Amino acid sequence: MNKIFSFTGAGRIVFGNGSFEQLAEEIGTLGGRRPLVVIDRGLSLAGMKKRVSTYFKKAGMRVVIFDKVEGEPPLELADEGAKVAAAKKCDLIIGIGGGSAMDVAKAVAVLTANKGRAVEYLGLNNIPGPGLPTIMVPTTAGTGSEVTFTSVFIRKDLQKKEGMNSPYLYPRVALLDPELTLTIPPQVTAATGIDALCHAIESYTSIAASPMSEMVSLEAIDLISSNLRTCVHNGADLDAREAMLLGSLYAGLGLANAGVTAVHSLSYPLGGMFGIPHGLANTILLPAVMNFNLPGTLEKFAVIAEVMGVPTEGLSLNEAAGRAVGAVEDLIDDCGIYDSLETLGITETDFPKLVDVAMTVARPLANNPRKITAQDALEIYNDAY
User: Do 249 and 136 contact (CB within 8 A), yes or no?
Assistant: First the structure.
C-alpha cells in the first residue's frame, strides 16, 4: 500500500445466463440505431450470423454484419471494417466472438470516428480521440478483451504482432452470457481457458499489480483452476461454464490494470512469425516463464499454489512456490494440451529470431517480476521446446 494506484475497465459490465437478450436494450441506452456487428468467421458459419440477423429483425433494428475475422487477424482487417462502418453510416460497433473479433471491433470503432489508418494507432496512446460506442460479447472464456484497452494484430509485413493501447479502446458495455460458451469445442475451451489463467497469473505477479488487481487476479486463478477441467471434458455443464467466464472476466480486469509479463513478450513472435494461436502460445510458454520467475516473487507463487488447491503446509517457501508450476502443468495436461515448440514445427535455429522480436515487446518485460535478458529468453524457449 505504499504506492498510488487506479483501477479501470469497461464502462458497464452485464453478466448472466440469457443476458444476450439484453443486447438491443444496451444498444438503445447508448443511442445506437445502425450497429455494425463484427463476428468471427467460424462463429458466423456455425450459426451466429443467422442468430444475430434474426435477433435484430425481431427487435426492429437494421444491422450490418462484418464476419471476415479469423484467428490472429491482420492489421489491414481493421481498416477494412472501418470502411464498411463508414460506408453504411454505422453509429455503434458490436464485437461477438473470441479475442480476435473483439479486438477488431474495438479498432474499427476508433478508426471510424477518428479516420486515419490502423498502422498510425499502434503503440501506446496514439489514438487521437474517442471512437464509436462499443459493446463486446465474448463467446469464449479466454482473452478478457471485453474489458481491456488493447487491440492486437498481426503485422504481415514485419512478421510480428503489435497492438493499439489506449483508454479510448475500453468498451462502453461488456455483455457476458455464459450460455454462448456452451458449444465451444474441448480443444478451444482448453487453450482459451489456459490463456485466461495465464492472464491471471501474469497480472497477479506483475510488479505493476495493486491490491485491487491482485484481488481479481487471485479470484480468477481460483475460478479457472477449479472449473476448466469440467468445461473441457463436460462442456454442457452450465455452472462450470458460468464460473469459467467469470474467471476470464476477472483475469481481463487484472490484465487491464496490472499488465502482463514475459509470457506475452515471448508468445507474440510465435503468433507473428509462425501463426501459432495466441492461447496455445501462452499455454506452451507459461510453465517455463513461471519457472524462470520463481526467484523474483516466491511469496506470490506460494499463494498461487494454495489457491490452486495444492497442499503447502510444512513446505519451505521455495518448495511451496515451485508447486504452483506443477499445478499449472497438471492442469494443462488434464486439459489434453500436449503441444510444445518442437511439435509445432519450430526448430532451435528459429530461437535467435524469436528472441530478437520478443525483446522488443517492452511493456510486458518491464512488468516481469524478474529482470529478463536475451540469454534468459533463449533459455526459456529451450525449456518450452
Answer: no
